[in-house]
């Protein structure tokens, strides 16, 4: 295919992906009341699953009791006329993006498939399933761990008793969307490393060299978003370390592949 043909294929990829996102957004808009009440605003309630589990762990192992709460001290407000309507629309589009993610991956795979070897084309289903699984695991990780930990920390952070926490709706939704989508993308680390290693940009030795710095960053992030107890910090730290170590193993395997091909050739 010529360069212009590739651009045409890319254009239709973007068009089909956009249509899929809009369809998913329409479905989400239909169930917007459930999405807001039972999903988005759920971490604001003291009865949220994460708070209850951490409270039980704190009582059982005599840890920090900051998650044994009766209420989270802030209210959400909308200060513009179209605030709630605009929020509903953009939240539905974000939900549509999450729902359409496997389809977007499939479109991306079809676009790069002509440049792959026959044995690599056979891995299409494994690629779609593994990438989608990692993304949704990241979304759940962000929703059930990072987001409630962040909300609990920020809601209880106080510079003075004079200041009340009346949080703007856009600010709260921005935290939710940023946390969930970011965690979904972070969990794609093994897939990203796979392609970077295949292109020769990243090697296993490079990742091993900077492993200690990666661990420090992970521990800092965990310390910032969690209460000051070991259980909470390890709950966030361990999955991220597992992802990083899995990325090293993938890079090591990809670095060995060219050598095997050259020997066979």
UniProtKB/TrEMBL annotation:
The keyword Nucleus does not apply. One of its GO terms (molecular function) is proton motive force dependent protein transmembrane transporter activity. Belongs to the TatC family. Its main location: membrane. Forms a complex with TatA. Keywords: Cell membrane, Membrane, Protein transport, Translocation, Transmembrane, Transmembrane helix, Transport. This is Sec-independent protein translocase protein TatC. One of its GO terms (biological process) is protein transport by the Tat complex. The chain crosses the membrane at residues 12-36, 89-112, 124-146, 179-201, 213-230, 236-252. Part of the twin-arginine translocation (Tat) system that transports large folded proteins containing a characteristic twin-arginine motif in their signal peptide across membranes. One of its GO terms (cellular component) is TAT protein transport complex. The lineage of its organism: Bacteria, Pseudomonadati, Bacteroidota, Flavobacteriia, Flavobacteriales. It is a multi-pass membrane protein. It is found in: Cell membrane; Membrane.
């Amino acid at each position: 295919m010529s360069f212009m043909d590739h651009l045409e294929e890319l254009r239709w990829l973007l068009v089909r992906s956009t249509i899929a996102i809009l369809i998913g957004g329409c479905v989400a808009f239909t169930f917007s009341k459930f999405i807001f009440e039972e999903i988005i605003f759920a971490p604001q309630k003291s009865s949220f699953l994460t708070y209850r589990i951490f409270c039980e762990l704190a009582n059982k192992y005599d840890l920090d009791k900051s998650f044994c709460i009766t209420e989270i001290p802030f209210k959400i407000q909308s200060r513009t006329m179209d605030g709630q309507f605009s929020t509903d629309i953009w939240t539905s589009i974000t939900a549509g993006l999450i729902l359409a993610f496997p389809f977007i991956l499939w479109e991306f795979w079809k676009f790069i498939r002509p440049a792959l070897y026959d044995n690599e084309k056979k891995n299409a289903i494994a690629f779609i399933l593994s990438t989608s699984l990692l993304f949704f695991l990241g979304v759940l990780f962000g929703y059930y761990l990072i987001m409630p930990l962040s909300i609990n920390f920020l809601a209880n952070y106080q510079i003075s008793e004079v200041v009340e926490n009346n949080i703007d709706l856009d600010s709260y939704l921005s935290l939710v969307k940023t946390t969930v989508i970011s965690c979904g993308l972070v969990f794609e680390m093994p897939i990203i490393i796979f392609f970077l290693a295949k292109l020769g940009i990243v090697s296993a030795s490079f990742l091993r060299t900077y492993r200690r710095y990666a661990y420090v960053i992970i521990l800092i992030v965990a310390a910032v978003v969690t209460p000051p107890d070991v259980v909470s910090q390890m709950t966030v730290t361990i999955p991220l370390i597992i992802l990083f170590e899995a990325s090293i193993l993938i890079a090591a395997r990809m670095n060995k592949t060219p050598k095997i091909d050259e020997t066979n050739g």
